[in-house]
Design goal:
With about 260 residues, the protein is α+β, with helices and mostly antiparallel strands. The chain is built from 13 helices and five strands.
């Protein structure tokens, strides 16, 4: 574990050096000049931009054992004009959570991703960070009959369907196994957002509305979302089985494109 932390600290320092070297001084309000011995910004200049001491910033670049806060990382990211991917990498290497990362994205599916649904013959849907279904295709509506094929008063949510809609207990084969697994996958998926009010509100609603969810949630089981066989007892088609595949868009990793390819 210590070797992993040391490696991340070293990577963080080298990453900061590269970012500093590529930054043109004049773009940050500093004179370029021909007398500069340093390519890009000086350490002192980065420290000035971020509002930290030059010594402390130097220690960061040297990979020393210093405790850097999320606030300081945010100032560094803003000062160096990092892209979203670079900012995420900075926080990851520092072992810190970026609150702005989770707060900056609304759960809206891009039009291009929604358009992909129409090209997929199998049931498919786009799921948001709290497992709201943001869009789905005709095949998904036909599979989740009585739910997605109905007019929605609010954004449908997979966990609300599983635990609060009686139709789910008939549609999902081995409901208790699927429900327990969903709860464990949801906890793992939201592990960095457990303090967010919207998530807490959803958990409270599910806890009050379902004894099973309340019990499963208290067990603190954690399971990464995986593919595999999913069986349904459809009211018109009888028993149907699918292979579930989940993909994440690169630019909006809080979203999931879920596809159910037919097995029989």
């Amino acid at each position: 574990m210590r070797s992993e932390v040391t490696a991340r600290r070293k990577e963080l320092g080298e990453f900061l050096q590269v970012l500093r070297a590529r930054s043109a001084p004049e773009a940050f309000g500093f004179p370029a000049g021909s007398r500069r011995r340093t390519v890009g910004l000086r350490r002192e200049e980065v420290a000035q931009l971020a509002g930290i001491s030059a010594t402390w910033y130097t220690w960061l670049e040297q990979g020393r054992e210093v405790n850097v806060s999320a606030e300081v990382l945010g100032r560094l990211a803003q000062s160096l004009q990092l892209t979203r991917s670079e900012r995420a990498y900075l926080f990851e290497m520092a072992g810190r959570r970026d609150a702005q990362e989770h707060a900056s994205h609304e759960d809206t599916a891009p039009a291009a991703l929604i358009a992909v649904l129409d090209d997929i013959a199998a049931p498919a849907y786009i799921m948001g960070r709290y497992w709201d279904l943001l869009a789905w295709n005709k095949a998904a509506a036909q599979l989740f009959t009585g739910w997605l094929d109905q007019k929605q008063e609010r954004t449908p949510n997979l966990l609300r369907f599983v635990f609060l809609d009686p139709a789910a207990r008939s549609l999902l084969v081995d409901w208790d196994v699927r429900a327990r697994r969903n709860t464990a996958e949801f906890r793992a998926d939201c592990r960095t957002r457990l303090d967010e009010p919207a998530l807490q509100q959803l958990v409270d609603e599910l806890t009050q509305g379902s004894e099973e969810f309340a019990r499963f949630w208290k067990q603190h089981d954690v399971l990464e979302r995986q593919g595999g066989q999913r069986d349904f007892r459809h009211p018109k088609r009888g028993l149907v089985s699918y292979l579930q595949v989940t993909l994440r868009p690169v630019e909006q990793e809080q979203l999931k494109l879920v596809m159910l390819t037919s097995l029989r």
